[in-house]
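Exercise 7.
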Amino acid sequence: MKILHLVGSQASTYYFGVSMMYAPGCINNFPEHDHIILLAHVDGTWSVCESLDECTPKKLSLPEALKILHEDSAISCMQPHMYDYKGMVSFRSIAELLDIPMIGNPGEVMALTTNKWQSRAVVESCGVPVPKAQLLREGDDVKLKPPFMIKPCREDNSMGITLVQEESQIADALKTGFTFDDELLCEQFIPLGKELRVGVVEKEDGELEFLPIMEYFLHNKELPIRTSKDKISSSDGKAGDMDFAPTDRQTPATIDDELKKKLIDLAIKSHKSLCCRHYSLYDVRVDPDGNPYFIEASPYCSFSPKSAIVCMSRGDEKYGDKDLFNRLANMAVREHEHIRASRKSEDGKQVLGMRSLPSLKVV
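Solution. The predicted structure, written as tokens, is:
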């Protein structure tokens, strides 16, 4: 199998660095596969290379890069590793332009899940518990009473978030948040019982498999929340200076049966309501009374040994670092072959409808 890896960022050196942290872990973990890399540079150019160790790859326009990739008939599927907004949303359509399968969630799903206000509204409408919240734009009055969280609606890695504990902190929290987005989520603070990550992956038969739960221990922190510094350490945001921050966590988490049942229900309802494909991952806050709340969706994965979904899967002894990637890559290829075959079939031609082939499920 030959994998096309979508790597880099055209938004910031920070997200270029995040991508360069994860992508090599995936590429190096699968020497049995062939690899080709489409690398996005912060200056808006692109490179096509066989290794991230190449120091001076030729810089291309996107049409030039796509022409090279289009002529490579050996490419089996695409694995995205971009974490800025355009990388998670717009550039995932590169797989469609090249008519190749992609592992994971398509751009339209990522556009929804990257927006914290919209994604919480969707899952709440399907019965998933969420904290009370308010959408804020410049000039809006905050209606919630502290303590609450201020978060940019479309940002990742906890960038721009503030735990507001007193009204005197509101102005600075809004100023920080609005430097990252023009819409903010003002969200009720849930007292710490447990800080969890839960996820599901699709099995060969289309059923959802609930992964072992990951718990983060925050009781010894100055603030009982995870900030950007708890995820990635960097002194100046430069790509070469970034590394994974030390983390106090456990997989599988010690969870009672009643809470586990609630978490499974939350994850499956969220996955289906957000129209996720192949897998999905969620941050969940549990209050001291054992009530879980959806905080946000994170339906992306680089399948590096350090990726959250891979770490969580290893909580089950049947999984190693490679199993989920290989399963989902093969699934994506089969789904795409089914679509191609349907296009050529008379039965696959449709007269009405704005979406062709509404279902990707192999029959």
